[in-house]
Amino acid sequence: MRMAVNKRKTLGYTSFACLGLIASMATNACGGDSDAEEQCVSNEQFFKETIMPIAQAKCMACHTTQGQAKNSSFIFQDSAWGPDYIEQNMKVFEQLSKLKFEGNPWILLKPTNEIAHEGAVQFDRDSEEYDAFVAMIDRIDNPVSCDDTDAVEEFFDNVELLDEVATLRKASLALVGRLPTLAEENQVREGGFDALDVVLDGMMTEEVFFDRLIEIYNDRFLTDRYYPGTEGLDLLAGMENEEGDNPTPIYPNMFWFEEEFGDGADGDAISEEDAALRAEAAEFSNKGIARASLELIAHVVRNDLPYTEVLTADYTMVNPFSAKSYGVSPAFETGEYDEFVPVKLPGVPHAGVLTNSIFMSRFPTTVTNRNRHRSRMIYEIFLATDVQRLGERPVDATKIEGFNPTMNDPNCTVCHQIIDPLAGALQNWNDMGWYGPPTTGWYSDMRQPGFGDETLPPGDTTAAVPWVATQIVADNRFAIAPIHILFSGLSGQTPLREPSDVNAEGYLEGLRAHDVQTKIFQEIADEFIESDYNLKVIIKELIKSPYYRAANAYDLDATRLLELKDVGTGRLLTPEQLHRKIEAITGQPWQTGGDDPTPYLLSGAQYRIFYGGIDSDTVVTRVTEPNGIMANTAARMANEMACFTTAQDFALDPSERKLFPYVEPSFQPEDSNNYEIPASAQAIRSNIQYLHQQLLGEFLSVNDPEIDRTYRLFLDLWKDGVSGMAAELEEGEFNPYPTNLAGPCQATTNYWTGEPIPEAQQIVNDENYTVRAWMGVMTYLLQDYRFLHE
Amino acid sequence: MDRRSFIKLASVAGIGVVGPTAFGENNSLLGGTGRSYAPYDGLYYISVNAGGGWDPTSFCDPKGAAFEDETNRMNNYLTETIEEAGNIRYAPVAGNAAFFQKYFDRTLVINGIDMLTNGHDAGNRHTWSGRLTEGHPSMAAMLAGAYGPQQPLAYLSSGGYSETSGLVARTRTGDNVNALTRLAYPNRMNVDSEDDLFHPETASDLIRSTHEEREAALLASQGLPKIQGAMSTLFAARAGSNELKLLQQYLPETRSDNSLGAQGEIALAAYKAGIGVSASLGVGGFDTHGNHDDNHFPSLQRLTEGLDVIMERAEELGIADKILINVGSDFGRTPGYNDGNGKDHWPITSQLFMGSNIRGNTVLGSSDERHSAIGFNGASLSSDEGSPHLQPGNITASVRKFVGLGDSEFAAQFPLEEEPFDLLG
């Protein structure tokens, strides 16, 4: 659907372009925008788009907490300070505007050096900057506020969004790796976005949704580095009670399965069956250990618990196998390896993920690092704060002299004042990621353990992490952090960062884009908090947002192209998502053959890394743009799956088919005289239309040019094949057009049961060449942009 | 439609495509003009990242102890044991001797580089893009984007900062060569048989040409730049993917068991096949906050042995005179040892260059006895207390100039504040 073209309301944006204030603002304003008087620019918008660029260019070299004017009362903050930094800067500006000397505001007298200013003249009275400051002072006295809701709608003018049904399809593949059922589609078609919420709620109870959620969070936690294998077990097996002369293992039963099934020591023979069971038990025990923090997230969401419990939970998660490793006995319903339940481990003051040894080990520390790395990661994952950006400006560290620079030198404290208190609150978790309060207490040459402005209450420090968890979840950034994580997970994009270079092309457009996204995310955060931190609210709101649904745009000028440059989810599916989509749509997974098949896209030994996946160990960031190897991976997949599934689908009853419900192998498009057979041709077109819908999400009329194109391909492939089969070959000459299908492409055995297909339904022969023509169409569609992307 | 036609069509449609737009100076080292659709045979640039912050004083900027029990000594080896290979001094630890004795004449050492940061991400970015703050592509990505973005393995990445800023598609390679072979021949049921195909050749051509028509139609009808970009990236990747099979013939029969060496073998095979332009490789283990000597020296040895594998393989393939290797790290390590016998982050570091067309057997830049940077006079290429410190931006600007991109559109699009010097020769 198109959105109406509305007038853009950026009076300040365009009028100061007329003054040439900011070189990059090459807009059409100077031509005399007759709509100017209808436009509204709020004080905040004016300050952000007009005053802040001046501040960055003229003031912030000195007037920051680290600059030469750090001891003055006129200090600007940047976005790294926090989400309210603009509000803070406006307060500071207002304070200095109200301070007057002989009736003139200091905010004007200082930069013009009309009163002593160590920074000398930054601009003159007749400059654009001066006029801007005057305008801002006037606005402070006569505030302008605008209807903010228009800004978001206007930003997405001329952007075509997916309708509810198309959004449902995209979300269904993204969340649960399948197409929506007919009932779900009809429900949404009739009920609109309200019905979409209901259907999504239903989807978010399916187990495959929790698999997807775990994938999204593992991209941040990277704790799958310890899964599979036994690395998680190995890590915890070394934990010891260090009291007394003879330390004893805290979890002596970690490798319980070796005793139960035998470990082959002392020459004892183990039966093949026991060896297999032992291997399984090892794998499942390790899964329980390695995935506890990710399963906690799944547990919270599955049970509609507040997301805050991810940090405040006074329990951890175990499956039946890791429960035995820990030596605990909670109740299980099924006893299967994938059933996780909460449990308190004796002697551990739990605080959700923050007290999980695997999570702690994934972000290691040393005697000099002192938990700062862990602190930084907690800020990044749970508070959407990249601490390293606080100190991104050049630092002359060789000039750092004096005692204890992380406490006393501004070059260092810019970051350390943030991370060191939290690092201290993590004091009870040692460099191995084990719970072990330091016997001599925390370091006296570091900031007091705490969080933000709060210090850890004195006394018993064993509950330091549970205490700091309550502080973190109360911070207003805590509600933003999961939005960032899920936005990235669903769209493949990172949240926008505020542009910092005022002279860069597209600075103002980038600023506007950032503002709109911040506003939308804040609205989602508010709903999230109101729902008592139900994570599903974030997922639903993101799916309904323009960012997820933007599909196309029209009539964009240069400015709008810059503003919208990050809009639109042309997201290459991850290997895991593509794996699920292939099976959902074709009816078969893409995997090796044999009794123990390996999914090609999920295995590091096959194509997972080639296709841009991660191993959570040394490869930790996904490749999100296709390259030659990935294109070839898709081509190989398309060829193999077309071969494996085409005849198999034809062997089914039409009512059970996923791919070819409207045609049969006997349907040829033309007769032997090259005349079209109308009924066959029409059925072929209808099936092509169906395939475009199923595989590509394109709802096209049967006469659409794309349907024409695919039909032409089918026809050309068929003609080539028929002519090839009829060609006479010399003796011994290789025949590329046999009448039978190649072995792997035949349908003689049911893929899932392994049982022979009834002979009458088997497909071995393709004397009409129609099966191979359809295989060609499948290959064409399976590597299409719209199959590989969402 | 070949890649050139596709990119031309997209340009007419007003759509940005990952395509060759190099306007760099002609450089004989680069084998001709920048704009080329033929197999790439210009300079092959390999960046090698020693991940975590290496210690130059344990490598190419040695600082020893004056005597054995010196307190707060820089290192545990004595100053008098520092060795030399030609003009290059090196620390007498790890595999340094074997490396420098063999390669000193083809090695340029640059010491005393001021990273202006102690942060891993910022340091990585500063080293490999020349800019401390975000937004610039890595040097390797810029070169690939300028001289061969259409090549299927234009930019291989397995380590360090590898931001592309949309100039080129980045490729990762796994270790499974059999899997790579299957991907090189996607239409072969049996990769060893050219007759055993999923589709006859004519059918494959029909599918390909239909794709090309559809791709042009999709691009022409799409108005959102982000989706256009995603489409064009896939189409460009697909248009040249046939050349992947060329990689196979240039991989050695027996792969190196050194991780960096193995990465280098794939990178060199891609270059020899004409389908690669640059690579970002990496080796980790240098962030030694504890037990520095025990942990750092093995990593240094893996690094130098890996570089040896790369150089040897380049000689075997007859391309040693066409490669430029640039070795660097996030930053350096603190003077002396901490309480855990480790070394922490320090903003002064070094870089290495290797290749036949650079000034070998040379050390530029310096630091004092406590590894603080000494100013560098770019005009005279000499240390000078009164001159500013050498920064990564100077080095990146110098590399850009060396590879013919100094005054290019790319350099203008991603400007550096620091000036280039004739560091490489």
Explain what this protein looks like in three dimensions.
The complex is a heterodimer of chains A (790) and B (425). Chain A is mainly alpha-helical and 790 residues long. Helix content of chain A is 46%, strand content 3%. Chain A contains 31 helices and ten strands. Chain A has a two-stranded antiparallel ribbon. A two-stranded antiparallel sheet of chain A has the order 3-10. In chain A, strands 4-5 form a two-stranded antiparallel sheet. In chain A, strand 1 (100-101) and strand 2 form a beta hairpin. In chain A, 42% of the residues are buried. Residues 1-37 of chain A have low confidence and may be disordered. In chain B, 32% of the residues lie in helices and 14% in strands. In chain B, helix 6 (201-220) runs antiparallel to helix 7 (225-239). The chains are: A mainly alpha (790), B alpha/beta (425).
Write the layout of secondary structure elements.
The complex is a heterodimer of chains A (790) and B (425).
Chain A: H1 11-18, H2 43-59, H3 85-98, E1 100-101, E2 104-105, H4 106-109, H5 128-141, H6 148-155, E3 159-161, H7 164-176, H8 182-203, H9 207-221, H10 231-237, E4 240-241, E5 248-249, H11 256-261, H12 272-290, H13 292-302, H14 309-312, E6 316-318, H15 320-326, E7 341-343, H16 357-362, H17 372-383, H18 405-408, H19 410-425, E8 450-451, E9 454-455, H20 464-474, H21 481-491, H22 507-530, H23 535-544, H24 546-549, E10 550-553, H25 558-563, H26 575-586, H27 628-650, H28 678-696, H29 705-726, H30 770-782, H31 785-788
Antiparallel strand pairs in A: 1-2, 3-10, 4-5, 6-7, 8-9
Helix pairs in contact in A: 2-5, 7-8, 9-13, 12-15, 17-19, 21-23, 22-23, 27-30, 28-29, 29-30
Chain B: H1 3-12, E1 44-50, E2 83-85, E3 88-90, H2 96-103, E4 107-114, H3 120-129, H4 139-147, E5 153-157, E6 170-171, H5 177-184, H6 201-220, H7 225-239, H8 259-272, E7 276-283, H9 292-317, E8 323-329, E9 332-333, E10 345-346, E11 348-354, E12 362-364, E13 376-377, E14 382-383, H10 392-402, H11 409-413
Parallel strand pairs in B: 1-7, 1-8, 4-12, 5-6, 5-7
Antiparallel strand pairs in B: 2-3, 4-11, 8-11, 9-10, 13-14
